[in-house]
Amino acid sequence: MKALQYTRVGSHPEVVEIEKPSPGPGQVLLKVTAAGVCHSDEYVMSLSEEEYTAAGYPLPLTLGHEGAGIVDELGEGVEHLAVGDAVAVYGPWGCGRCHNCSQGKENYCTNAQAEGIKPPGLGAPGSMAEYMIVDDARHLVPLGDLDPVENVSLTDAGLTPYHAIKNSLPKLGAGTYAVVIGTGGLGHVAIQILRALSGAQVIALDINDEKLELAREVGAHHTVISDESAADAIREITGGLGANAVFDFVGANPTIATAVAVAAAEADVTIVGIGGGTAHVGFGSVAFDAAIRVPYWGTRGELIEVLDLARAGQVGVEIQTYSLDDGPKAYEALAAGTIRGRAVIVP
Predict the structure, then answer these.
(1) What mean pLDDT comes out for the span 180-188?
(2) Cα 27 versus chain centre, distance
């Protein structure tokens, strides 16, 4: 079968022929219907050989941590699934036994590192192939009548902002402000989630008006160019009070500085992006009682909720599609910043 793999540190991903896998006990074989392209993949492929080895990533690595498919074969002992079921893959795999996993919070599994458990595409073979193995049936969520191509990105680009926003909802009632920094793959979904679940006015930031156009299309109340004057613009919009929650989907030093600068008293500053930046926190450098959070992905239950929002027409993903053969071009476009929304590979 064909697969899109990262084969050598420092190289570009390439399409290769590999053997079709077979499911072991408790596993499920999916015929992949869609796979999402993410900046996290780009981050992994940017690591030096020493960093890559230290992180425990294998070579070659089949990419793709956003996946959807049709159940093709069941391993011994798998119940409550049938061949032909349409499913989405819950990506942050855990041990299934620890306290966090027992609550569905496998994204915060306390045993994963010690036991070498890796998410698909970020250690385990991912979804950018004609078939993929899912390690356990609990990591599959029914898609029902949702289009897999249009909705596969919700498994990360929807779940991650949903998890980040959900914890801040008590601070986002009527008359409040939420700032979204970076309106690309995750950010444009975050705007829709905020509009669906909160009473906040949404202020969106990005580096040019072309990117902000998508933010306006999906419901941002205000748009601001992300530059050195952005904090002043946000202060003006909020009447000098600042934002009650800030969600930074870039995570670089300049955007984190903006996020901290515009946080109101008792605000949440949530850093989601992996841009390598660091927040500087201390008395006088951040608003009183503001909290800084660095969440990771989301829970299985939250993925179900995100897909329910999609069924209700409250959340959708702007996508550009690529064939599996053209998968390397998707990563070229991602690196160039020319993808509007999210890229999806359709085997």
Answers:
(1) 97
(2) 24
Burial profile 120-140: b = 16 or more Cβ within 10 angstroms, e = fewer: bbbbbbbbbbbbbbbbbbbbb
Cα(111)–Cα(148) distance, rounded to whole angstroms? 31
- Average pLDDT (57-61) is 96
Domain ranges of the chain: 2-156+298-346, 159-293
Longest C-alpha distance within the chain, in Å?
A: 61
Distance of CA 93 to the CA centre of its chain: 14
Encode pLDDT of 29-46 as tens digits. 999 999 999 999 999 999
In this prediction, what percent of the chain has a pLDDT beyond 90?
Answer: 98
Kindly list the distances between the CA atom of residue 148 and the CA atoms of 65, 193, 322, 346, in Å, as whole numbers in the listed order: 14, 20, 14, 9
Compute the distance between CA of residue 251 and CA of residue 271 in angstroms, rounded to an integer. Answer: 6
CA nearest neighbour of 290 among 312, 259, 323? 259
Per-chain mean pLDDT for the chain = 97
- Written out in words, the top-level CATH class of the domain with range 2-156+298-346 is alpha beta
Give the residue among 135, 207, 126, 198 at the shortest CA–CA distance from 169.
Answer: 198
Domain 159-293, classified CATH 3.40.630.30, yes or no? no
